Amino acid sequence: MTDKKLLLLFVRNPKLGKVKTRLASAVGPEMALEIYLRLLHHTLDVSQALPVHKLVYYTDRVETNDLWPDDQYQKRVQPQGDLGEKMEAAFAAAFAEGYSSVVIIGSDCLQLTPEIIWRAYIELTQHDVVIGPALDGGYYLLGMNKPHPELFRNKRWSTEHVFPDTLLDIQTLQLSYALLPRLSDVDYVEDLDGTRLS
After folding, report:
1. Which SUPFAM superfamilies does its entry note (predicted)?
2. Rounded to whole angstroms, how far apart are CA atoms 141 and 9?
3. pTM of the entire structure?
């Protein structure tokens, strides 16, 4: 176990009608929930063996004896606010608790691999920030070695502007950064083209 590395996982409690709402408009809420559960299982698969501390942040309430083993994953409820405020608070808490490299991922990327996540930590040995851009203009991973709250502020969340605006902030702050491969998030039915869900 690498003591000072933390992986934050932002997930939604898997409830019918509450997950993948954009996808649900095309495939229905039952199928959207089924797809989201597959995404959660994939996120577990790619994170479980990594030699870092792991912390799952749920949207609504902490689940015990669920998909995430209690002995491997710390569990908390996401802070209040919009997505930026939630992530800013989660990073701030992690650094306040003594972690020196903190990476956050969501649960929307079937193309994510353990190797890509581990590469983020390697990049953080040489860069201030690491970011994994998503094809939709957002990002699927963000990591840093100390708090940079500006990266979470004044963003148009869930739009194609998130990644370019975040990158502009990184450059304005004159931080060194590394880019990971550009991957696809699953938000719309088109994102499932050619993707096996089982």
Report:
1. Nucleotide-diphospho-sugar transferases (SSF53448)
2. 10
3. 0.92
Fold category of 2-191 in CATH? Spore Coat Polysaccharide Biosynthesis Protein SpsA; Chain A (3.90.550)
> 7 pairs with which residues across the strands?
54, 103
Contact by Cβ (8 Å): 145, 101: yes
pLDDT > 90 fraction of the chain, expressed in percent and rounded: 77
Summarize pLDDT for 109-127 with one digit per residue, the tens. Answer: 999 999 999 999 999 999 9
Those residues with Cβ within 8 angstroms of residue 31's Cβ, 6 or more apart along the chain or in another chain: 24
Q: Where along the chain do its domains lie?
A: 2-191
3-class SS of residue 39: helix
**With 0-12 CB in 10 A as exposed, 13-18 as middle and 19+ as buried, what is 130?**
buried
Rounded Cα distance, 128 and 79, in Å: 24
Span 145-174, pLDDT tens digits: 999 999 999 999 989 999 999 999 999 999
Residue 156 exposed, middle or buried by CB count within 10 Å (0-12, 13-18, 19+)? exposed
Confidence check: pLDDT of 141 > 90: yes
Position 148, amino acid: H
The dihedral formed by the CA atoms of 163, 22, 193 and 7, expressed in degrees to the nearest 10? 50
Evaluate whether 34 touches 8 at the Cβ level (below 8 Å). Answer: no
